[in-house]
Amino acid sequence: MSERYESKSIVGKDVMDNGARTIGKVKDIEINIETWAVEVFLVKIPRAISKELGVGGFTGATARIPPDSIEQIGDIIRLKLSAQEIAEKVEMD
User: Fold this and answer.
1) Closest Cα partner for 44 from 72, 4, 80, 77?
2) What is the pLDDT of residues 29-53, one digit of tens each?
3) What whole-number distance in Å separates Cα of residue 66 and Cα of residue 72?
4) What is the pTM of this model?
5) pLDDT along the chain (93 residues), means of 10
6) Which one, 22, 23, 29, 51, has the greatest CB density within 10 A?
7) Domain that includes residue 76, residue range
8) Which residues does residue 62 pair with via DSSP β-bridges, in sequence order?
């Protein structure tokens, strides 16, 4: 049986890229109401990091991370993606 998490235990967790750099926090999750599966994790990237990556606006940015890009969920969420790959999944705040 796979592990299960409540959304409240995911939202607010730190998110790290595949180089172990903290790039933001989980802001929310989107769920497909037909399948009840998680579609994306919305990761809030602070302004300083989003500016460094060349994305985002005055308040930072939000990256849309699909579940298959997650390496591990524990005290932090570790992604399979590099910071630049994460930047490619950004939407403006």
Assistant:
1) 77
2) 999 999 999 999 999 999 999 888 8
3) 13
4) 0.89
5) 79 97 96 95 93 82 96 96 93 66
6) 23
7) 7-92
8) 44, 91
